[in-house]
Amino acid sequence: MSKRALIFVNRNARSGKKRLAQAVDILDELEFELVLVPSKRSGELADLIRKHRDELDLVIIGGGDGTLNRVVDVLVETQLPLGILPLGTANDLARTLGLPQSIPDACRAIAQGKRRSIDLGWVNGKYFFNVASLGLSVKITRRLSQGMKQRWGLLAYAISAVQALTQLHPFRAEIRVDGETIAVKTLQIAVGNGRYYGGGMAIAEDAAIDDQRLDLYSLEVKHLWQFIPLLWKMRRGQQASLPWVRGLHGQEIEIYTREPHAINTDGEITTATPATFRVIPQALTVLVAD
Protein backbone atom coordinates (compact mmCIF):
# COMPACT_ATOMS: atom_id res chain seq x y z
CA MET A 1 0.00 0.00 0.00
CA SER A 2 1.44 3.38 -1.02
CA LYS A 3 1.98 6.19 1.47
CA ARG A 4 0.79 9.68 0.71
CA ALA A 5 3.30 12.40 1.53
CA LEU A 6 3.62 16.10 0.94
CA ILE A 7 7.25 16.83 0.09
CA PHE A 8 9.00 20.18 0.17
CA VAL A 9 12.69 20.62 -0.60
CA ASN A 10 14.30 23.98 0.05
CA ARG A 11 16.18 24.56 -3.18
CA ASN A 12 18.15 27.34 -1.48
CA ALA A 13 19.55 24.81 1.00
CA ARG A 14 23.20 23.97 0.41
CA SER A 15 22.39 20.66 -1.30
CA GLY A 16 18.78 21.36 -2.25
CA LYS A 17 18.95 21.92 -6.01
CA LYS A 18 20.98 18.77 -6.66
CA ARG A 19 19.00 16.46 -4.43
CA LEU A 20 15.33 17.21 -5.13
CA ALA A 21 15.08 15.08 -8.28
CA GLN A 22 17.08 12.30 -6.62
CA ALA A 23 14.77 12.22 -3.59
CA VAL A 24 11.61 12.22 -5.73
CA ASP A 25 12.90 9.33 -7.88
CA ILE A 26 13.81 7.24 -4.83
CA LEU A 27 10.53 7.93 -3.03
CA ASP A 28 8.60 7.03 -6.20
CA GLU A 29 10.45 3.69 -6.27
CA LEU A 30 9.52 3.20 -2.61
CA GLU A 31 5.84 3.56 -3.59
CA PHE A 32 5.09 6.97 -2.15
CA GLU A 33 2.35 9.14 -3.61
CA LEU A 34 3.88 12.60 -3.52
CA VAL A 35 2.35 16.06 -3.36
CA LEU A 36 5.17 18.31 -4.55
CA VAL A 37 5.47 21.88 -3.27
CA PRO A 38 7.26 24.22 -5.72
CA SER A 39 10.06 26.21 -4.11
CA LYS A 40 8.40 29.50 -5.07
CA ARG A 41 5.45 28.57 -2.84
CA SER A 42 7.51 27.86 0.28
CA GLY A 43 5.83 30.76 2.06
CA GLU A 44 2.51 29.00 1.58
CA LEU A 45 3.77 25.66 2.86
CA ALA A 46 1.83 25.78 6.15
CA ASP A 47 -1.42 26.51 4.32
CA LEU A 48 -0.78 23.65 1.88
CA ILE A 49 -0.20 21.21 4.72
CA ARG A 50 -3.47 22.30 6.31
CA LYS A 51 -5.26 21.98 2.97
CA HIS A 52 -4.05 18.42 2.34
CA ARG A 53 -3.93 17.21 5.96
CA ASP A 54 -6.75 14.67 5.52
CA GLU A 55 -5.14 13.23 2.38
CA LEU A 56 -1.66 12.75 3.87
CA ASP A 57 0.11 10.11 5.90
CA LEU A 58 3.18 12.26 6.55
CA VAL A 59 5.13 15.39 5.58
CA ILE A 60 8.67 15.17 4.18
CA ILE A 61 10.89 18.24 4.47
CA GLY A 62 14.23 18.57 2.73
CA GLY A 63 16.39 21.35 4.11
CA GLY A 64 18.18 22.47 7.23
CA ASP A 65 17.08 23.41 10.72
CA GLY A 66 15.74 26.80 9.64
CA THR A 67 13.45 25.20 7.05
CA LEU A 68 12.17 22.72 9.63
CA ASN A 69 11.58 25.53 12.12
CA ARG A 70 9.31 27.29 9.64
CA VAL A 71 6.91 24.31 9.52
CA VAL A 72 7.07 23.04 13.10
CA ASP A 73 4.00 24.96 14.25
CA VAL A 74 1.72 23.52 11.55
CA LEU A 75 3.08 20.02 12.17
CA VAL A 76 2.06 20.32 15.82
CA GLU A 77 -1.34 21.60 14.73
CA THR A 78 -2.00 18.77 12.25
CA GLN A 79 -0.09 16.04 14.14
CA LEU A 80 1.26 14.66 10.86
CA PRO A 81 4.47 12.62 11.21
CA LEU A 82 7.65 14.26 9.91
CA GLY A 83 10.24 12.73 7.57
CA ILE A 84 13.53 14.61 7.20
CA LEU A 85 15.93 14.85 4.27
CA PRO A 86 19.06 16.55 5.73
CA LEU A 87 19.94 19.12 3.07
CA GLY A 88 21.02 22.09 5.18
CA THR A 89 24.37 23.35 6.34
CA ALA A 90 24.32 22.19 9.95
CA ASN A 91 21.49 19.59 10.08
CA ASP A 92 21.54 19.58 13.87
CA LEU A 93 18.09 18.03 14.30
CA ALA A 94 19.08 15.18 11.98
CA ARG A 95 22.28 14.76 14.01
CA THR A 96 20.31 14.68 17.27
CA LEU A 97 17.97 12.02 15.86
CA GLY A 98 20.81 9.94 14.40
CA LEU A 99 19.41 10.22 10.87
CA PRO A 100 21.51 9.16 7.86
CA GLN A 101 23.06 12.03 5.92
CA SER A 102 22.79 10.51 2.44
CA ILE A 103 19.56 11.06 0.52
CA PRO A 104 19.03 7.38 -0.45
CA ASP A 105 19.49 6.25 3.16
CA ALA A 106 17.29 9.07 4.48
CA CYS A 107 14.53 8.10 2.02
CA ARG A 108 14.76 4.46 3.07
CA ALA A 109 14.55 5.45 6.73
CA ILE A 110 11.35 7.37 6.00
CA ALA A 111 9.93 4.40 4.08
CA GLN A 112 10.67 2.00 6.94
CA GLY A 113 8.33 4.11 9.05
CA LYS A 114 9.97 3.74 12.47
CA ARG A 115 8.37 6.42 14.64
CA ARG A 116 9.79 8.36 17.56
CA SER A 117 7.95 10.87 19.74
CA ILE A 118 10.05 13.93 20.55
CA ASP A 119 9.69 16.95 22.79
CA LEU A 120 9.60 20.47 21.46
CA GLY A 121 10.69 23.72 23.01
CA TRP A 122 8.25 26.63 23.11
CA VAL A 123 9.01 30.31 23.56
CA ASN A 124 6.43 33.10 23.45
CA GLY A 125 4.11 30.96 21.34
CA LYS A 126 6.80 29.70 18.90
CA TYR A 127 7.89 26.06 18.84
CA PHE A 128 11.50 25.03 18.26
CA PHE A 129 13.42 21.76 17.89
CA ASN A 130 16.99 22.44 18.96
CA VAL A 131 17.79 25.65 20.77
CA ALA A 132 16.57 29.20 21.35
CA SER A 133 19.14 31.82 22.28
CA LEU A 134 19.84 35.51 22.70
CA GLY A 135 22.96 37.61 22.66
CA LEU A 136 26.05 36.55 20.70
CA SER A 137 24.20 33.89 18.69
CA VAL A 138 21.76 36.48 17.33
CA LYS A 139 24.70 38.59 16.10
CA ILE A 140 26.09 35.48 14.37
CA THR A 141 22.72 34.69 12.78
CA ARG A 142 22.38 38.21 11.44
CA ARG A 143 25.82 38.00 9.84
CA LEU A 144 25.18 34.62 8.22
CA SER A 145 23.97 34.96 4.65
CA GLN A 146 22.60 32.20 2.43
CA GLY A 147 25.51 32.80 0.08
CA MET A 148 28.03 32.33 2.89
CA LYS A 149 26.48 29.03 3.93
CA GLN A 150 26.37 27.74 0.37
CA ARG A 151 29.99 28.73 -0.25
CA TRP A 152 31.61 27.84 3.06
CA GLY A 153 29.29 25.30 4.71
CA LEU A 154 29.90 24.90 8.45
CA LEU A 155 32.93 27.18 8.18
CA ALA A 156 30.47 30.05 7.62
CA TYR A 157 29.41 29.75 11.27
CA ALA A 158 33.02 30.11 12.43
CA ILE A 159 33.61 33.11 10.16
CA SER A 160 30.46 34.84 11.42
CA ALA A 161 31.36 34.02 15.03
CA VAL A 162 34.81 35.62 14.71
CA GLN A 163 33.23 38.73 13.18
CA ALA A 164 30.63 38.90 15.96
CA LEU A 165 33.29 38.54 18.67
CA THR A 166 34.76 41.88 17.62
CA GLN A 167 31.55 43.51 18.87
CA LEU A 168 31.23 41.86 22.27
CA HIS A 169 28.70 43.59 24.50
CA PRO A 170 27.61 41.81 27.69
CA PHE A 171 24.08 42.45 28.86
CA ARG A 172 22.22 41.99 32.12
CA ALA A 173 19.36 39.53 32.43
CA GLU A 174 17.18 37.96 35.05
CA ILE A 175 16.61 34.21 34.75
CA ARG A 176 13.80 32.47 36.61
CA VAL A 177 13.89 28.67 36.73
CA ASP A 178 11.45 26.59 38.76
CA GLY A 179 10.88 29.36 41.31
CA GLU A 180 14.52 30.50 41.59
CA THR A 181 15.59 33.95 40.32
CA ILE A 182 19.19 34.55 39.16
CA ALA A 183 20.67 37.85 37.97
CA VAL A 184 23.45 37.51 35.36
CA LYS A 185 25.76 39.62 33.23
CA THR A 186 26.25 37.54 30.10
CA LEU A 187 27.19 37.44 26.44
CA GLN A 188 24.71 34.74 25.52
CA ILE A 189 21.89 32.70 27.01
CA ALA A 190 20.91 29.49 25.22
CA VAL A 191 17.90 27.33 26.08
CA GLY A 192 17.99 23.89 24.49
CA ASN A 193 15.35 21.26 23.88
CA GLY A 194 17.38 18.89 21.70
CA ARG A 195 21.04 17.96 21.93
CA TYR A 196 22.92 19.58 19.03
CA TYR A 197 22.90 23.10 17.58
CA GLY A 198 25.24 25.45 15.72
CA GLY A 199 26.83 22.75 13.58
CA GLY A 200 27.37 20.02 16.14
CA MET A 201 27.81 21.74 19.50
CA ALA A 202 25.93 20.12 22.38
CA ILE A 203 23.65 22.12 24.68
CA ALA A 204 24.48 19.85 27.64
CA GLU A 205 26.43 16.64 28.12
CA ASP A 206 23.35 14.52 28.87
CA ALA A 207 20.77 16.44 26.81
CA ALA A 208 18.23 14.47 24.76
CA ILE A 209 15.27 15.51 22.65
CA ASP A 210 12.89 13.36 24.67
CA ASP A 211 14.08 13.99 28.25
CA GLN A 212 11.17 16.37 29.00
CA ARG A 213 13.41 19.19 30.22
CA LEU A 214 15.10 22.34 28.97
CA ASP A 215 18.85 22.89 29.36
CA LEU A 216 20.16 26.43 29.77
CA TYR A 217 23.65 27.86 29.75
CA SER A 218 24.76 31.45 30.21
CA LEU A 219 28.15 32.60 28.85
CA GLU A 220 29.52 34.90 31.55
CA VAL A 221 32.84 35.39 29.78
CA LYS A 222 35.02 38.38 30.68
CA HIS A 223 38.15 37.74 28.60
CA LEU A 224 38.65 36.56 25.02
CA TRP A 225 41.07 33.82 26.10
CA GLN A 226 38.19 32.13 27.93
CA PHE A 227 36.69 31.20 24.56
CA ILE A 228 39.60 28.81 23.85
CA PRO A 229 38.66 26.13 26.42
CA LEU A 230 34.98 26.99 25.88
CA LEU A 231 35.00 25.91 22.22
CA TRP A 232 36.54 22.57 23.16
CA LYS A 233 34.00 21.96 25.91
CA MET A 234 31.00 22.96 23.80
CA ARG A 235 31.57 20.14 21.32
CA ARG A 236 30.87 17.73 24.19
CA GLY A 237 28.25 19.74 26.04
CA GLN A 238 30.63 20.23 28.99
CA GLN A 239 30.68 24.04 28.97
CA ALA A 240 28.93 24.30 32.35
CA SER A 241 32.02 22.74 33.96
CA LEU A 242 33.85 26.04 33.34
CA PRO A 243 33.54 28.67 36.11
CA TRP A 244 32.46 31.36 33.62
CA VAL A 245 29.54 29.31 32.24
CA ARG A 246 26.35 28.86 34.25
CA GLY A 247 24.27 25.72 33.60
CA LEU A 248 20.61 25.30 34.63
CA HIS A 249 17.76 22.88 33.89
CA GLY A 250 14.00 23.14 34.15
CA GLN A 251 10.66 22.60 32.48
CA GLU A 252 9.80 26.31 32.43
CA ILE A 253 12.26 29.19 32.21
CA GLU A 254 11.64 32.94 32.11
CA ILE A 255 14.16 35.53 30.92
CA TYR A 256 13.83 39.28 31.46
CA THR A 257 16.09 42.05 30.14
CA ARG A 258 15.97 45.82 30.54
CA GLU A 259 15.67 46.34 26.78
CA PRO A 260 14.13 43.79 24.38
CA HIS A 261 16.66 41.29 23.05
CA ALA A 262 15.96 39.31 19.87
CA ILE A 263 15.69 35.53 20.23
CA ASN A 264 16.96 33.05 17.67
CA THR A 265 15.02 29.73 17.37
CA ASP A 266 16.76 27.03 15.29
CA GLY A 267 18.66 29.69 13.35
CA GLU A 268 15.66 31.97 12.71
CA ILE A 269 15.03 35.22 14.63
CA THR A 270 11.41 34.86 15.71
CA THR A 271 10.71 36.63 19.02
CA ALA A 272 12.28 38.74 21.78
CA THR A 273 12.50 39.18 25.54
CA PRO A 274 10.72 39.16 27.89
CA ALA A 275 10.39 35.46 27.17
CA THR A 276 8.82 32.38 28.68
CA PHE A 277 10.24 29.02 27.60
CA ARG A 278 8.54 25.67 28.12
CA VAL A 279 9.21 22.08 27.15
CA ILE A 280 6.27 20.38 25.42
CA PRO A 281 6.68 16.61 25.99
CA GLN A 282 6.07 14.18 23.10
CA ALA A 283 4.74 16.98 20.93
CA LEU A 284 5.67 15.57 17.52
CA THR A 285 6.30 12.25 15.76
CA VAL A 286 9.34 11.91 13.51
CA LEU A 287 10.47 9.04 11.28
CA VAL A 288 13.92 7.74 12.23
CA ALA A 289 16.37 5.07 11.17
CA ASP A 290 16.51 1.64 12.83
Percent helix range: 25-40%
* Beta strand %: 35-45%
Spatial sequence of strands, sheet with the most strands? 6-5-18-15-8-9
Class derived from helix and strand content: alpha+beta
Largest beta-sheet details: 6 strands, antiparallel
Task: Describe the global form.
Answer: elongated
- Count the E strands: 18
Keywords: ATP-binding, Kinase, Lipid biosynthesis, Lipid metabolism, Magnesium, Metal-binding, Nucleotide-binding, Phospholipid biosynthesis, Phospholipid metabolism, Transferase
GO molecular function: ATP binding; kinase activity; metal ion binding
Family: Belongs to the diacylglycerol/lipid kinase family.
Protein name: Lipid kinase
Please give a handful of descriptors for the protein shown.
290 residues; Tumour Suppressor Smad4; elongated; six-stranded antiparallel beta sheet; 36% strand; 9 helices; Rossmann fold; 2 domains; alpha+beta
